[in-house]
């Protein structure tokens, strides 16, 4: 079959071509806890990336999980010292006014104003179970309807048997606010009243330990005994009822996650009994017909249990209440050892560097929650006993003139803190590329201006992301985050004005826009400027996200990312798999200080490389200082190829530092190992965050692959002696021979390959048709195997084939004015200064050359470039 016939067969029907980019999205692995039983509808679930990290999937897409919480019923019941629920208080002068349920719509309107895609909604057990075993879903349905109205998803924060490890007791629970005033908070009990007081309003100790007497904030939940089992089953039943109700009432899947209890780790029996209780509650969610991801939040910084050990709990994270960027990085890195999905479950809304904290969390593979939206419980004396936390109307001792949340009305936006304004702009861009951020592996993410707790007003840096160098310049203290997906780079920022985005390689195109599913919706094209230093610059404005379409990247792929890692010495919380996950914060920690030890990478497919890097943090205290590099082609016979020498590390902080060891080019390698001979072991062990393995020839090899595609297609043209003149074919033969010589040269340079590609293209474009043969199709309409050509020599409209002398309209020019058809070689261009002939392939060129081979080459090159889906259709003829 000729190349022309091959093209016709391709065009006869759509053809789908799939290509997989290295280090892209793998077929996800499901966490053991997240699959629904017996076909229940899965609203959200946790999935695994290539590098072992996990992400939240919602509606079949990675989901950037970021939210701000409101307290729902607690807010409606009252502000401290203002009003409270009448639940047996002995102070007759205490106000009893409450806000109507409809008031809570304000929380949804104000959250949507900040452009959050998720709202975290506190839901109390007592909101649903109004009598023993009787459920009223009015409150929940209102939340779901408001979320739909304002275009958000819901994270339910379930306040059930435990709020801060227990419950508050009417007439017994109180605390002191920032002014030193005693504050009654007994009205904030979370389970139905019959678990905390009797019919006369007296506290009971059947379910909660009230033996310590009056004055505690939260009284510990009793987790064992007959009454505890009764209460556990009752809580299971109400959660099961909630999710069965959602399965019927919410076909849109508005609720995407649920937090099981609030800060339960303060319970004395948390690690032994209460975590099992919570896991049982998770079962009610996971065995329903409305399955969502389940999460746990911890008071403090640690991970009290390994959530991976509990079947029905998906992930957990602490409530650190910290302004330090380094704390976010550390928490996420440590959290990955005890969870699928590491996250900051709760951090204060009062922090001025909120977007920095979010960015540091996202870029390290975590998710972020903010507490809280309003100034409920945040009065002028310091609020929730340790300071104000609100994004709106955040009162402090100097801000008594700010409105209180209970004065809010729909349609009016209250005073916003500066961090609220920052996050409002940032969320606009994050929402546009959130699926890319959430789904990217660590090596394909980078962040800007988060090296310090507070962003620098003047900042300029260029970071690696994927296989590219991407720069970020700001003069307004902006932060930014970027991800790579194949040859596309995506970036956004919280800038209030604009920032400059730079690249070392010239982008093919840049546009502002946003993702609509898998498709990029362009809002505007962006001009590219060449700077004096030879880099390329584009402008990113406030609220925007950019996509930069790039050529093949100059940076090198870390081959270690596709290997399996093992070692002779490790601690279970810091396994060998951390050295090739692409994350420079997670690492391998040896069991002790003893050496020598081995760290090994093995591949299923043979690899070629010429450099091996070791990366570490706090290097002076814990990095290896001397190691051998050994390789194996069969996994059993090892050969030493290099030694690091004695390394003097410079850093003593969390700055990632690397030592690169160059080795002779290795080929056919299936195993690489580092023999650790010496190490800094100030803390009793050595630590390695990453091992990186690269091939410096990779960019050249990528271009050679494209060149070989062009050569293959050119070879199909060069045999068509019945179509093209001998002189033009001879020029093509020479170009093919020269290109093949370059491709066969293992030492060829990028410049040589590009030059060969250019010359080959010129030779193909320079092919000249022989004089017209009267319209006969060069292949006579027949396939070599005797079959009929797909179009039978006919145009789709019944006219002759394009090579047959008739136009698509049966002899008329495409404009219908009766001028000669282009196929007859006599068509005059509109300016009557030159003629244009359709070549034998039926594709028009104003130089009489064949255009279609390059179209096929473009498809092949696109596959190499990493386009994941290409649909080919026959294009109509056109006249240049």
UniProtKB/TrEMBL annotation:
Please name the Pfam families in this protein's record.
Answer: F5_F8_type_C (PF00754)
Compositionally skewed regions (Gly residues) per UniProt? 800-813
Keywords linked to the UniProt accession: Hydrolase, Membrane, Signal, Transmembrane, Transmembrane helix
**Region called Disordered, residue ranges:** 766-841
Q: Where is the composition biased (Acidic residues)?
A: 776-794
Q: Which InterPro entries match?
A: FA58C, Galactose-bd-like_sf, GH
Q: Which residues form the F5/8 type C domain?
A: 543-696
Signal peptide extent: 1-31
Give the top-rank taxon of the lineage listed in the UniProt record for this protein.
Bacteria
One MF term from GO for this chain?
A: hydrolase activity
Name of the protein: Glycoside hydrolase
